């Protein structure tokens, strides 16, 4: 076994998405555009949901929160990744690296739990519409959001505390473009088996359990829709779920496979590739999906554009 230099690591070097200079420039421009679009698109949805009283319903309350988490989730990693593209390497203090891990997992876990709450909201709206306003009252919505925050805080804090207690020495290059648990554990000069087990079991439990709850909600929705004789009513009811369902598939696809793989060199390289999907692509697609497929959001956006146009005229 190769001996490590026991010099304590205080600063970490993050590697860029690619080492080819031309592609770094191209990716920097593309990612900058996508990141700005993420901010603008999600801010627009948040503004519409907050200012339009017709959208003051549980569904859009959750949608506004989802847009907020898309902004902070991508902002946790994308700016540092773009610094790496601009400078070829990006340095970050070890303590700041651990803080980034905390917020990355905190916002990521909260978004997963929020998508689960949104699936429950769709289940109640379709399968129990007469009691929808009672079941999904304002206090219930706030309790669901608060639960998402508290569970995510505990989950992220557990990983952060355990990582902060590890000694780091030797090479200080992280095989990733942002700080994450698996790549950082490669720098530890102590037994990391507990950390690796917790990543698999705790993260796996949250990912699998939330996905199963979402699957259960849509199974019940599907069973209920089959009982509806009118195909028009069936399509109308299911259309309220399609946006959420697409977002769920985009979110869980790369994320689940990423955390349930063992931390080998090949898997870490694959993690770098899939990380681009859920840190950049998914937050960009969410406002597009909801804006294009949701009639009420489109009507509200059109109304505001017309109001501004004629207001100026």
How do the strands and helices of this protein lay out in sequence?
Layout: E1 11-14, H1 21-51, H2 58-87, E2 90-93, H3 94-127, H4 132-135, H5 138-164, E3 173-174, H6 181-185, H7 193-226, H8 231-260, H9 265-293, H10 295-312
Parallel strand pairs: 1-3
Antiparallel strand pairs: 1-2
Helix pairs in contact: 1-2, 1-9, 2-3, 2-9, 3-5, 3-7, 3-8, 5-7, 7-8, 8-9
Description of the molecule:
It is a single chain. The chain has 313 residues and is mainly α. It has one domain: Up-down Bundle (Rhopdopsin 7-helix transmembrane proteins), CATH 1.20.1070. The chain has helices at residues 21-51, 58-87, 94-127, 132-135, 138-164, 181-185, 193-226, 231-260, 265-293, 295-312, and strands at residues 11-14, 90-93, 173-174. The chain has a 3-stranded mixed β-sheet. The mean pLDDT is 82.
List keywords for this structure.
77% helix; Rhopdopsin 7-helix transmembrane proteins; three-stranded mixed β-sheet; 10 helices; 313 residues; mainly alpha
Q: What topology, given as strand order, has the largest sheet?
A: 2-1-3
Low-pLDDT stretches are none
Number of helices: 10
Number of domains: 1
- Whole-angstrom Rg: 22 Å
CATH architecture: Up-down Bundle
The geometry reads as globular
Span between termini: 75 Å
Helix content estimate = over 70%
Largest sheet, if any? 3 strands, mixed
User: pLDDT average, as an integer?
Assistant: 82
SSE arrangement, N to C: EHHEHHHEHHHHH
Which structural class fits the helix and strand makeup? mainly alpha
Task: Name the CATH superfamily assignment.
Answer: Rhodopsin 7-helix transmembrane proteins
Tally of extended strands? 3
What is the CATH T-level topology?
Rhopdopsin 7-helix transmembrane proteins
CATH class reads: Mainly Alpha
Q: Beta-strand level of the residues, as a percent range?
A: under 5%
């Amino acid at each position: 076994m190769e001996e490590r230099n026991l010099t304590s690591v205080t600063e970490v070097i993050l590697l860029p998405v690619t080492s080819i200079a031309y592609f770094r420039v191209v990716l920097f421009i593309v990612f900058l555009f996508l990141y700005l679009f993420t901010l603008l698109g999600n801010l627009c949805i948040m503004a519409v949901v907050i200012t339009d009283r017709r959208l003051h319903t549980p569904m859009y309350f959750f949608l506004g929160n989802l847009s907020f988490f898309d902004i902070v989730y991508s902002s946790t990693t994308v700016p540092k990744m773009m610094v790496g593209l601009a400078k070829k390497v990006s340095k970050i203090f070890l303590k700041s690296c651990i803080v980034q891990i905390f917020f990355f997992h905190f916002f990521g876990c909260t978004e997963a739990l929020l998508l689960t709450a949104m699936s429950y909201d769709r289940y109640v709206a379709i399968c129990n519409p007469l009691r929808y306003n009672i079941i999904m009252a304002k206090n219930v919505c706030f309790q669901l959001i608060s639960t998402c925050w508290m569970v995510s805080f505990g989950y992220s804090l557990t990983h952060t505390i355990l990582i902060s207690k590890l000694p780091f020495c030797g090479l200080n290059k992280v095989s990733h473009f942002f700080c994450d648990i698996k790549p950082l554990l490669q720098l530890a000069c102590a037994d990391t088996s507990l950390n690796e087990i917790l990543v698999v079991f705790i993260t796996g439990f949250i990912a699998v359990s939330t996905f199963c709850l979402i699957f259960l909600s849509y199974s019940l929705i599907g069973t209920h829709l089959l009982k509806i004789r009118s195909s028009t009513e069936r399509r109308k009811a299911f259309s309220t779920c399609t946006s959420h369902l697409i977002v769920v598939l985009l979110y869980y696809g790369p994320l689940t496979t990423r955390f349930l793989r063992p931390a080998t060199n090949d898997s870490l390289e694959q993690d770098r590739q899939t990380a681009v999907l859920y840190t950049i692509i998914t937050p960009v697609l969410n406002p597009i999906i909801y804006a294009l497929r949701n009639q009420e959001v489109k009507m509200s956006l059109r109304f505001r554009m017309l109001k501004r146009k004629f207001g100026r005229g």
